Amino acid sequence: MQKKDLIREMTRLGIAPSKKMGQNFLIDDNFLDWIIREAAVTPDDRIVEVGPGFGALTERILQCGAALTAIEFDRKLAAWLREKLVPRGLNLIEGDACRIDFAGIYGAGVDFRVISNLPYSAGTVIVANLLNLELPPSDLVIMLQKEVAYRFAAKPGSDDYGALTVQIQATYETEILRTIPPELFYPRPEIDSCVIRLKRRGDMQSQKHRRILSRLVRTAFAHRRKKMLKQIAAVFGMETIAPAMTVCGIDPDIRAERVSVEQFRKMAELIDSSNIEAIP
């Protein structure tokens, strides 16, 4: 949908873009076509889109023949989608994507993909929730604020490297595909965006290991400028953590920001093998 058509339709419906909900609509056809090519959508795909807005990306996914479920929080936009795209095969869920049971959309244990221009206000929460699923999405091709995308793909030792970085990279291979300037959106955001691809690792850990990892890294990065040993030992026990760090080749004086994703993954496995998840 071109900018003039989008504005006309919004005026007709009495809709104003909500900054609180992170509503910035894509208005560049070439870029939207590029996303579909990059995502390589096929008729066999089961896809979830969050925040479809006026369906610019939604319509293109449907044209590929894929099964598509879109989650829209805005009541007026949901009504518009119900009228325009549900008759063409869209499964629409009206609700808050931060509270949706993603595993129940296609059924427990059924693989699905996420292709979406995620709302700025909720993108991090949505990705974090997807990581907690027993079977996280096979891949995600998503648009986020540039700073958030860089945090997802950060390397150890950088300022962007943190607990969520480790959780994401423990489950997904990450690749920043493209930086998106503000002029491709209406209204124009104040910052650049990025398209990032997350591809599920073949050696993804069990849900139990990932839960231990989540607790481990959140504790380790709680005071990122401090040595992590005492912080995580207070939760998991020094008798578990000290030998685990030795096995993983981690200096006891190190800070969490210097510990690699693979070292954190190995520590989670060792903690699990000790049958200690956390000290009450």
Number of strands: 9
Rg over CA atoms = 21 Å
Biggest beta sheet attributes: 7 strands, mixed
Strand order, biggest sheet?
4-3-2-5-6-9-7
Approximate strand percentage: 15-25%
Straight-line N-to-C gap: 54 Å
What is the global morphology? elongated
**String of helices and strands:** HEHEHEHEHEHEHHEEEHHHH
Question: Helical proportion?
Answer: 40-55%
Q: Indicate the low-confidence ranges by residue numbers.
A: 276-280
Number of helical segments?
Answer: 12
Mean pLDDT: 94
Structural class: alpha/beta
Please describe the structure with a list of short key phrases separated by commas or semicolons.
single chain, 280 residues, alpha/beta, 12 helices, 17% strand, disordered C terminus
Overview of the molecule:
It is a single chain. This protein is an alpha/beta fold. Helix content is 41%, strand content 17%. The chain has helices at residues 3-13, 29-39, 56-63, 75-84, 103-106, 123-131, 146-152, 163-171, 207-220, 228-236, 238-247, 261-273, and strands at 25-26, 46-50, 67-72, 91-94, 113-117, 139-145, 172-180, 185-186, 193-200. The protein has a seven-stranded mixed β-sheet with strand order 4-3-2-5-6-9-7. The longest helix has 14 residues, at 207-220.
